[in-house]
């Protein structure tokens, strides 16, 4: 008999932010196929005797291509195993969960989901910066800051440059200068505050406050690396560790 695959969201990093369902599904698995950003603390929660298969990707370093990941999941399920496909954040938000599910279901494999807290929510809770706030932001937009195989970043800048919305950029370190320029080209003010959060909710979390018109330079100077999330918009003025006047002050020089 074929096994099944659980698509599990491990959350943003802190093991306490895993859902009860995610934890239960992880502990039911015979095999755990996990991404690079899944922490050792979360991996340690698997059932004793479960086999661990790393398939992590780093920027411009996909040691296990997506097609091969799909095949591993299929092979393990066909062998009758219960497979936990463990992903950082939520598997349905920039996690390719739906692609893997479609592949598996097309081959007759049963798939179940265990959602996870996505990085934007984790960063919001750890920093105290809301994603929406009455009078500042009536909506929030999530966008990925890179394209597969380094293709051109052809985002809808006009839609994203909404001063009454919060923009959250995932996986955007490498292209943050282009992103900032695209938003300013569509008249999002250069003084718009930005909060960058690296490795949100973990013990290695890093934070940096900037503004749109000097964001790229500040990211370089701070040496921020992936995974870093960018929260762009007026809600950042609520960040308690920097005064509003400083956030909205005139650009240097």
List keywords for this structure.
253 residues; alpha/beta; Cobalt-precorrin-4 Transmethylase, domain 1; Methyltransferase, Cobalt-precorrin-4 Transmethylase, Domain 2; 2 domains; five-stranded parallel sheet; five-stranded mixed sheet; 9 helices; 10 strands; 28% helix
Question: What does this molecule look like?
Answer:
The chain is α/β, with parallel strands linked by helices. It has two domains: 4-114, Cobalt-precorrin-4 Transmethylase, domain 1; 119-247, Tetrapyrrole methylase, C-terminal domain (Methyltransferase, Cobalt-precorrin-4 Transmethylase, Domain 2). 28% of the residues lie in helices and 21% in strands. It has helices spanning 20-28, 40-43, 66-78, 97-106, 119-127, 157-160, 176-185, 215-222, 244-247; strands at 4-9, 31-34, 51-54, 82-87, 110-114, 139-144, 165-170, 193-198, 206-211, 228-232. The strands form two sheets. A five-stranded parallel beta sheet has the order 3-2-4-1-5, with helices on both faces. A five-stranded mixed beta sheet has the order 6-7-10-8-9, with helices on both faces. The model has no long low-confidence stretch (mean pLDDT 91).
**Tally of alpha and pi helices:** 9
**Rg, Cα atoms, Å:** 19 Å
| Relevant CATH superfamily of the largest domain | Tetrapyrrole methylase, C-terminal domain
* CATH class annotation of the largest domain: Alpha Beta
- Strand order within the widest beta sheet: 3-2-4-1-5
Range of helix content: 25-40%
Query: Distance between termini?
Result: 68 Å
Measured by DSSP, the beta-strand proportion falls in 15-25%
How does CATH name the architecture of the largest domain? 2-Layer Sandwich
Structural class: alpha/beta
Low-confidence stretches: none
Mean pLDDT: 91
Secondary-structure element pattern, one letter each: EHEHEHEHEHEHEHEEHEH
**Apparent shape:** elongated
Instruction: Supply the number of structural domains.
Output: 2
Tally the beta strands: 10
CATH topology of the largest domain: Methyltransferase, Cobalt-precorrin-4 Transmethylase, Domain 2
Biggest sheet details: 5 strands, parallel
